[in-house]
Specification:
Blueprint lengths: L5 H51 L2 H17 L7 H7 L6 H28 L1 H25 L2 H9 L3 H4 L1 H19 L6 H20 L11 H35 L2 H35 L4 H36 L10 H26 L3 H26 L3 H10 L3 H8 L7 H20 L1 H4 L3 H35 L2
Helix pairs in contact: 1-8, 1-11, 2-5, 2-10, 2-11, 3-6, 3-10, 4-5, 5-9, 8-9, 10-14, 11-12, 11-13, 12-13, 12-17, 12-19, 13-15, 13-16, 14-15, 17-19
Length: about 500
């Protein structure tokens, strides 16, 4: 048998990539478009629900829910250990044994988490902070772990096939059931307890729909140390990155929730949740698609560079006006809607959180790139830096500025996202400024128009609506003037077969 040399393998790989590149591009583009509009619908449901729930729930209610979700968020780390990311990132299609090994470990970990939460509940510490209703919410979140494990493999298979338009369908059903039931029960005056029923219903529906879309006929339990070590080789590094993120966010916010009065933590939770909608709609959706796509393109750095630049261009085009618009009109909203007066103390926090997300919109695609091309160690360094800065600076800011210091600290730390640009540039000559300059200029003009018209926007709901429409038109007109030609060219290139 003639052995194949390394250059022959490389040539074959390049030829294979050339043959597959159009299919990858078409699936990615169609996936982005379909995924974006479907998740836009999801975020629309969430935004409407946030409006309604902000009227029915008090800051303390948000504080209770925020407290128990921080506990769950911290334990999520132990439910995956990076196996899903490892299976998505693999160059070759995983066989059913690999899926079974990953499922077995996740299933065991999910029930371990249920046991840990049971011990936490029995200790009485959670009940002392959030009451009986908060304990029931925590228990419902615990039960959702084993149910989520049942749909993990189906989700991975859809990601590897780049069938993102199908991947979002279970999420649509989950959102409709969750928020529909939550609003109905909140309207009936159930308060925090409404989350318990909504969480359980969401978990059951999501699992059933996922299995209808992508059934895993080879489901089973298997323990194979060789396969497990192979998956954990990438997965543990990936999950260590996530673990640092948990320490930076969930563990830190859990400490804040324990230290601050629930009402003040409720203000932080409300502001952070609202400010995350633009991020979830744009960055998170694009990243869900680009991680497997970047992984498939890791041997074609020229195409990978173009993909990254296009991602940043379209993300900034979409997220900048949303962040600016929400920052401008959040205070007028608390003035013209009577049930929103209670949220006025959280306005400053909301604006700082929103502005920090502007930086995250740029750094997240770059961190995602480093993960996709195998430089997990570099992203670990970034996450270690952000974790240390959060734990050191935020307490100082809280001591100086009160609960609003949490958001102010996040805004200051967000400027360190520039380090992610430097790291990626060592491997790919990506150009960042040309991708964001048009959206940045248009967003600045939009902000100026909103600021100078503020005396009108606070008069009533009619003027608030007019203000939103006017500033949107300012952004739209400005972006056409500064970058209309480029937008046309970029969209045309994406649609080109």
């Amino acid at each position: 048998m003639i052995q194949q040399t390394a250059p022959d393998i490389t040539d074959e790989l390049e030829e294979l990539m050339d043959d597959d590149i159009e299919q990858i591009k078409q699936k990615s583009v169609s996936g982005v478009v379909s995924y974006f509009f479907r998740t836009a619908f999801l975020q629309g449901i969430g935004l409407v629900a946030a409006f309604v729930l902000s009227a029915f729930f008090s800051p303390t209610d948000f504080g209770v829910y925020g407290f128990v979700t921080q506990i769950i968020g911290l334990l999520i780390f132990f439910s995956d250990v990076g196996l899903a990311a490892a299976l998505v990132q693999q160059k070759d299609n995983p066989d059913n044994k690999a899926y079974q090994v990953a499922f077995t470990l996740q299933w065991l970990l999910s029930w371990l988490i249920v046991g840990i939460i049971g011990l936490v509940i029995l200790s009485g510490l959670v009940q002392a902070k959030v009451g009986v209703a908060g304990v029931w919410v925590l228990f419902s979140l615990a039960i959702s772990f084993p149910l989520a494990t049942l749909k993990t493999v189906s989700s991975i298979r859809l990601e590897r096939k780049l069938l993102f338009q199908k991947l979002v369908i279970p999420q649509i059903f989950e959102q409709i059931v969750f928020f529909g039931l939550l609003i109905a029960l909140a309207w009936r005056g159930m308060g925090v307890m409404a989350y318990t029923y909504a969480i359980i219903a969401r978990s059951i529906i999501g699992t059933l729909v996922m299995w209808l879309i992508e059934p895993w006929k080879g489901i089973g339990f298997l323990w194979d140390l060789k396969i497990l070590r192979s998956l954990l080789g990438f997965g543990v590094k990936f999950q260590l990155n996530d673990f640092l993120a948990r320490i930076k966010d969930q563990l830190f916010y859990l400490g804040l929730a324990a230290f601050l009065p629930l009402e003040q933590f409720g203000y932080i939770q409300w502001a952070k949740n609202w400010s995350m909608y633009p991020y979830n709609l744009t960055v998170q959706n694009v990243m869900a698609i680009t991680f497997p796509t970047y992984s498939r393109l890791q041997h074609r750095k020229d195409l990978l560079q173009k993909a990254i630049e296009k991602s940043i261009f379209f993300i900034s085009l979409a997220i900048f006006p949303i962040l600016v618009g929400m920052s401008i009109f959040i205070w007028p909203l608390t003035q013209v809607v009577e049930k929103y007066h209670k949220w006025e103390p959280a306005v400053a926090s909301f604006i700082f959180f929103a502005l920090s997300i502007g930086w995250a919109a740029l750094s997240t695609p770059l961190v995602n790139t480093l993960n996709a091309i195998g430089y997990i160690n570099k992203t670990l360094k970034l996450m270690m830096m952000w974790t240390v800065l959060t734990w050191v600076l935020t307490p100082v800011f809280v001591w100086k500025f009160g609960f609003n210091g949490v958001a102010l600290s996040a805004f200051v730390i967000s400027f360190t996202s520039l380090f992610s640009v430097q790291m990626v540039k060592k491997h790919l000559p990506v150009r960042i400024l040309p991708q964001i300059k048009e959206a940045s200029l248009a967003a600045i003009l939009m902000a100026l128009a909103g600021y100078f018209g503020m005396s009108y926007w606070v008069r009533d709901l009619k003027w608030l609506f007019i203000g939103g429409l006017f500033t949107s038109l300012v952004y739209g007109f400005s972006i056409l003037v500064f970058g209309g030609k480029r937008i046309f060219v970029e969209v045309k290139n994406l649609m080109k077969k």
